[in-house]
Design brief:
With 594 residues, the chain is of the alpha/beta class. Among the domains are: 8-34 and 159-260, Glucose Oxidase, domain 1, CATH 3.50.30.10; 45-153, PtsI, HPr-binding domain (Enzyme I, Chain A, domain 2, Orthogonal Bundle). The chain binds phosphoenolpyruvate and magnesium ion (MG).
Length: 594
């Protein structure tokens, strides 16, 4: 597939082939082939035993590294894919190959580097002459093995750059699995390659790890440099070079419009009702103001979660002033009008300790979310004042992130009330802003009966609640298999939320990724949730799924699900009970089976 230049100048659009779906914006990192220089080609007879030892040591180290990589991949993407590393290991154990290399050292007095290269060159010629693509592809595996052996001989450190950005898009003519495994998988947001087949190891791994990949980009070294900002579209196979983060928003809106285009039938515009007439409200999670209109078009009945911290990222880590906040919230309010829009107050790690950042930074334990706001009440009040002023233009609400105690709500509400007073809001009438809490910390669920008395609504942030309940970091590749939304502990937490919210007559929404998955969404409705908020592209599929069930039927199924204790039983039950009914929805493929 050839590259096509659509536009000249700084911003360029390259056309390749989509190998793994997804849309990402990130920083290019060119993976340079490292051919370590070695100068010593021959050795003297007295050095033979020392050189043989050096070769065997490098062999052992290479083996250990592959075993370590295999383990890492096994945990991240499963045994089946990690077995690919076995091919590398087998080559390292091939007696013929090892004997040929040792013979070169012993008999031809070649340095181990030279002997390896010598044998490899001959063998690679044979591989490359083979017509069968399977064997031809093995030649890159072999090259990888040779490279690693030589690295270990020259004691070149095969490690990762500690300063790698978190939004890494690896760019390389081709990339072996061994090279991929050297990078922290959670940092790899995409791959841009020249050569990689549909069934190449890298493509398989990337797909199962949901990393978008575009291949078939020629002259990659001339086209992309380390540090370039890229928009990679793993659906259409395009790579835009030199674009800004706003390109992601635009591209996402386009995708949202595509989702909307999928809502062609009139009934899709109608509210989401179960077969027995229970109304389920579907909202959108958004990060940028410009996504809001597209979300409403895609069928969102409001914004269930507006992640305000992304404003900071777009402001080059500068704290916004009140006017900056106000303008954004006013636009949001004017777009949603009478529909609700829930603004989450800043959910970022402590700015004095780390850069302002959402996502990775924001998912840690420590000083983040409401804890930062309460430590710096003046900055918190700036945001609150802007929200309260913008409320004049639409139905804005406030949700507080990372709440773990009643005290934090009382303290936050006190600050909100101070702002209300300053703005002259009548404190006794219905005009006061609704303040809710995000339930993300198990402590909040365990004390929910008390917490519920201090808030107007609750929203479950399952992304964090799962990680904190299961002690399984949401970005930890090693234990990704533990991060299971249907773990009995999670189901109990969610059940508690529904019951306590009902008893206190407050709304409970689920706004984590869990709600975006048709099966999990059906489970949530069965648990009793009637408000779900998700990425807007997921709304049509979730709507279709919920409409296939009666709420009573879902409740019965979920009651049975709640009686199960083993994860394996739960998976089987969900597969039997839900997948058959929803099998036309492609999203189930992603259902966790662990
Ligand atoms: C969550 O934790 O589920 C949530 C919605 O917040 P975030 O993903 O931004 O942490
Ligand atoms: Mg969260």
């Amino acid at each position: 597939m050839s590259k096509k230049r659509k536009r000249k100048g700084r911003i360029r659009k390259l056309q390749g082939k989509a190998l793994s779906p997804g849309l990402v914006f990130g920083t290019a990192y060119r993976v340079e082939p490292q051919h370590p220089a070695f100068f010593r080609l021959s050795i003297s007879p007295k050095d033979v035993s020392v050189e043989l030892k050096r070769f065997r040591k490098a062999l052992k180290r290479s083996r250990q590294q592959y075993l370590r990589d295999k383990k890492k991949l096994e945990k991240a993407v499963g045994k089946e894919h990690a077995a690919i590393i076995d091919a590398h290991l087998l080559m390292l154990e091939d007696p013929w190959l090892l004997e040929e290399i040792e013979k070169g050292i012993r008999e031809n007095l070649e340095s181990p580097e030279k002997a390896i290269q010598h044998v490899a060159d001959n063998l690679l010629d044979v591989y490359r002459s083979l017509v069968d693509p399977f064997f031809r592809e093995r030649s890159s595996d072999f090259e990888e093995v040779v490279q690693r052996l030589i690295w270990n001989l020259t004691e070149l450190v095969v490690g990762e750059d500690p300063d790698l950005p978190d939004d890494l898009i690896l760019v390389a003519p081709e990339i072996g699995l061994g090279v991929l495994a050297r990078f922290p998988l959670e940092k790899i947001k995409g791959l841009v390659l020249t050569r990689a087949g549909e069934t190449s190891h890298v493509a398989i791994i990337a797909r199962s790890y949901q990393i978008p990949v575009v291949s078939g980009i020629e002259n990659i070294r001339e086209e992309v440099r380390t540090g370039d900002r890229l928009l990679l579209d793993g659906f259409s196979g395009t790579v835009e070079v030199g674009v800004g983060p706003e390109s992601l928003v635009k591209a996402r809106s386009k995708k949202d419009s595509a989702a909307e285009a999928g809502l062609t039938k009139k009934s899709d515009r109608k509210p989401c009702l179960t077969l027995d007439g229970e109304r389920v409200f579907l909202y959108a999670n958004t990060e940028f103001g410009s996504e809001v209109a597209a979300a409403l078009k895609a069928g969102a009945e409001g914004i269930g979660l507006f992640r305000s911290e992304y404003l900071y990222m777009s402001q080059k880590n500068q704290v916004l002033d009140e006017e900056g906040h106000f303008l954004l919230y006013r636009e949001l309010a004017e777009t949603v009008k009478q529909r609700p829009a829930v603004i989450r107050t800043l959910d970022i790690a402590d700015p004095s300790r780390s850069e302002y950042a959402a996502g990775e930074e924001g998912s840690a334990l420590g000083l983040r979310g409401i804890r930062v706001s309460l430590r710096d009440p003046d900055t918190f009040k700036v945001q609150i004042r802007a929200i309260l002023r913008a409320r004049e233009h639409g139905n804005l609400r406030i949700v507080l992130p990372m709440i773990s105690s009643v005290d934090e709500i009382i303290e936050s509400r006190k600050l909100i009330e101070e702002v209300e007073k300053e703005l002259g809001v009548a404190l006794l009438n219905d005009d006061r802003v609704a303040v809710g809490v995000l339930l993300e910390v198990p402590a909040a669920i365990l004390t929910l009966e008390a917490i519920a008395r201090y808030c107007d609504f609750v929203a479950v942030g399952t992304n964090d609640l799962i990680q904190y309940t299961l002690a399984a970091g949401r970005l930890e590749e090693e234990i990704a298999y533990l991060y299971n939304p249907l773990h009995p502990a999670l189901l109990r937490c969610l059940d508690t939320v529904v019951k306590v919210a009902r008893a206190n007559d407050i709304t409970a929404t689920v706004c984590g990724e869990m709600a975006a998955h048709p099966i999990y969404a059906a489970v949530l409705v069965g648990l009793g949730f009637r408000h779900l908020s998700m990425t807007s592209v997921a709304i049509p599929a979730v709507k279709r799924a919920i409409r296939k069930y009666s709420a009573a039927d879902l409740k019965e199924k979920v009651d049975e699900l709640m009686s199960l204790t083993r994860l394996s039983e739960i998976t089987t039950f969900v597969q039997k009970t839900f997948i058959q009914r929803l099998e036309k929805e492609s999203a189930f493929q992603e259902l966790r089976t662990g």
